[in-house]
Amino acid sequence: MKSIKVLDAKGLACPMPIVKTKKAMEEIETGQVLEVHTTDKGAKNDLTAWAKPRGHKLLKHEDENEVIKFRIKKG
Q1: Cis peptide before 53 (omega within 30 of 0)
Q2: H helices within 1-75, ranges in order?
Q3: Which residues form the UPF0033 domain (predicted)?
């Protein structure tokens, strides 16, 4: 599934990756995918905990050269 939007949250500390992700999710349609790039190690737990109760689905996350990339499908 192709990402509709890529959010660059590299270099931002908690809670900013979540704040930026929330805003970016408001800009896409239900069913579309947001890709988030961050260097915040706590983002794995934070984004997982944030997405599920809001009906979003964390499709995958991967570490690549100290950047964590998430793909989140808007619910």
Answers
A1: no
A2: 16-26, 43-51
A3: 7-31
- Catalytic residue, candidates 4, 14, 16, 58: 14
pLDDT in tens, 52-70: 999 999 999 999 999 999 9
Which candidate, 39, 34, 35, places its Cα nearest to that of 63?
39
Q: Where in the chain are the domains? A: 5-73
For residue 64, what are the β-bridge partners?
A: 67
**Cβ–Cβ < 8 Å for 9, 36:** yes
12 is catalytic: no
- What pTM does this model have? 0.90
3-state secondary structure of 61: strand
Spatial separation of the C-alpha atoms in residues 22 and 20, rounded to whole Å = 5
